[in-house]
């Protein structure tokens, strides 16, 4: 019955692990966004994804470049958004970039993938890029080839990686890092237009933010499960700071009072803080939206 829908635009089956047949929905004329990240059968080469007549977004779980990719790249006009999880492909092939010239957002998550960044940067409209970090030298490549993207997400780099070169990526506005380890004296680079920084489960210390603390453009900061961070005074000079989130950083013992000195601050998510503390009370008196309850998914207001 779902495959006969005359008006369905977006279909999310990402949590449906036991769906065995998705072919009927591929012919829905109005379907623009399809997410089958959690469907085991989406891996099959028999799924004719190009049947979708009006594609805008496609998310596939366990893609295999020798099978699914040859179906994905058959779209005559390409795709604006493509997400591949547990991608088994070893490298990004020339055929991929040749056919995907319309890509605006790309997410590839693979243990084995050998990313050739130069090929990705041949995509003229690519603005949002999410990758497992290809290696310690990748951040230098981002700067050297003048990445045009405005949002970059890097995760699970196995070797210590210095993120200092990211300061030279002039277009970057949003940066999210997870499961990273910086080398000794390594820092997170501060791009000139950076508005949002997210750091999660990273082996970083207070000095890792030495460039970020001087940022005059940062508007939101999200830090979670970074055990080595102790002092939050890094935010005291951020004149445009509006949103702040601190979760699972139990070793922080100073610097929270700096939140009181930031006039633009309007939202703070601090589930580990004592709601009756002086700082929490003072923030509420300043009409800051303060959330002390823990949420597993929190959307910024």
Automatic annotation (TrEMBL):
InterPro entries: Leu-rich_rpt, LRR_dom_sf. It comes from the Eukaryota. Residues 44-67 are annotated as: Disordered. This is Leucine-rich repeat protein (LRRP). It comes from Trypanosoma vivax (strain Y486).
